[in-house]
């Protein structure tokens, strides 16, 4: 198995696009791992299955989630936060596969963040018509660490907003295998996902899977 993607990509700078200061898109950077990730995801979901969490205000979230790694992101009536156990199983979250962590660290490095070691991977599942409204990722302890987001399966339009909810947002098409990194002055930008269009992906079927790697603690 070859996980040395950046040895391969080192001579293809066209793969790297700075969308805004601190926002870097690495087109197709996860492509070569997709089959492995698909299998590993199955094993993770056998331990901690997808579920629809509830917002602190009591609304069921449209995106189904799970996590792996030392910390998982959770939401319930007590708020949004990271927790070391899966509330569904009351067991630790499944381990983060080493090749996932490595993909995240190497993507961050390529995007200009050399010290990123994720301790949490939030796994999002979007089915047809699911969207994710504009929000900031701000439950992490230290915003010097970026967010590394891997898109798999169906395509999506990523909404990249500004520092205030009311700021205009631009649409960035994210395809299977794309990795988006945001940090520094863009770390707290509002962002979201437009309604997912109906479709079928040969590996991931009728859904979009997004892995967001974070340094929670
Ligand atoms: O699905 C995506 O690309 C973004 C997910 C996201 O913003 C989040 O999980 O906080
Ligand atoms: Fe987010």
UniProtKB/TrEMBL annotation:
SUPFAM superfamilies: Clavaminate synthase-like
Enzyme class at the top of the EC tree: oxidoreductase
Molecular function terms, GO-annotated: broad specificity oxidative DNA demethylase activity
Keywords: Dioxygenase, Iron, Metal-binding, Oxidoreductase
Entries under InterPro entries matching the protein: Alkb (IPR004574), AlkB-like (IPR027450), AlkB-like_sf (IPR037151), Oxoglu/Fe-dep_dioxygenase_dom (IPR005123)
Cofactor(s) in the UniProt record: Fe(2+)
Coiled coil: none
Residue stretches making up the Fe2OG dioxygenase domain: 117-217
Domain of life: Bacteria
E.C. numbers: 1.14.11.33
TM region(s), chain numbering: none
NCBIfam families noted in UniProt: PRK15401.1
Entry protein name: DNA oxidative demethylase AlkB
Organism this protein belongs to: Undibacterium curvum
The gene coding this protein: alkB
């Amino acid at each position: 198995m070859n996980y040395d993607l950046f040895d391969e990509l080192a001579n293809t700078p066209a793969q790297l696009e700075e969308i805004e200061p601190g926002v870097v898109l690495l087109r197709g950077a996860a492509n070569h791992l997709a089959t492995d990730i698909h299998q590993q995801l199955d094993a993770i979901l056998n331990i901690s299955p997808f579920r629809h969490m509830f917002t602190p205000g009591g609304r069921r979230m449209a995106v189904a989630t799970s996590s792996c790694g030392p910390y998982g992101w959770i939401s319930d009536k007590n708020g949004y936060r990271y927790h070391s156990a899966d509330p569904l199983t009351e067991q630790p979250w499944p381990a983060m596969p080493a090749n996932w962590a490595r993909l995240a660290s190497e993507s961050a490095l390529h995007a200009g963040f050399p010290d990123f070691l994720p301790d949490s991977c939030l796994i999002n599942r979007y089915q047809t018509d699911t969207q994710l409204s504009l929000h900031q990722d701000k439950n992490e302890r230290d915003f010097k660490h970026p967010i590394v987001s891997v898109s798999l399966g169906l395509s999506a339009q990523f909404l990249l907003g500004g520092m205030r909810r009311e700021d205009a947002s631009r649409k960035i098409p994210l395809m299977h295998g794309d990795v988006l990194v945001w940090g520094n002055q863009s770390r707290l930008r509002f962002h979201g996902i437009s309604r997912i269009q109906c479709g079928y992906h040969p590996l991931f079927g009728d859904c979009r899977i997004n892995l967001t790697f974070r340094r929670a603690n």
